Amino acid sequence: MNLSKFDGKKVFVIDTDNKKNEGLVNLYIPAKDNDIDEDCIGLDNGMGFYESDIKSIEEI
User: Fold this and answer.
1) What's the structural domain count of the chain?
2) How many CA atoms lie within 13 A of 58 on its CB side?
3) 35-51 residues labelled b (16+ CB within 10 A) or e (exposed)
4) Would you state the pLDDT for residue 34?
5) Residue 52 pLDDT greater than 90, yes or no
6) Range of the domain at 55
7) Which end of the chain is more exposed for a tag (fewer CB within 10 A), N or C?
């Protein structure tokens, strides 16, 4: 999954617990820049997701 392409975009995310979130991606951290060694994103609603926590993501 390429999370960098969603940086600055409004998205709809379903996480691995089937919880739904919608918001603007206002933070993208590539795997090489974090301790978990996974890409991650943050939304303007305060939610954040590691790549492994995302079941699906789409731009809206």
Assistant:
1) 1
2) 4
3) eeeebbbbbeeeeebbe
4) 87
5) yes
6) 3-59
7) C
- Which tokens is 19 given? 């919880």
Q: CA-CA distances (angstroms) from residue 42 to 2, 27, 32, 55?
A: 14, 5, 16, 15
Longest dimension (CA), the chain: 30
Position 35 pLDDT exceeds 90 = no
Which tokens go with 32? 């090489």
Instruction: Name the token pair of 16.
Output: 């691995």
CATH number for 46:
2.30.30.100
Average pLDDT over residues 12-33: 97
The model's pTM is 0.89
pLDDT at 15 over 90: yes
Please say whether the beta carbons of 41 and 15 come within 8 A: no
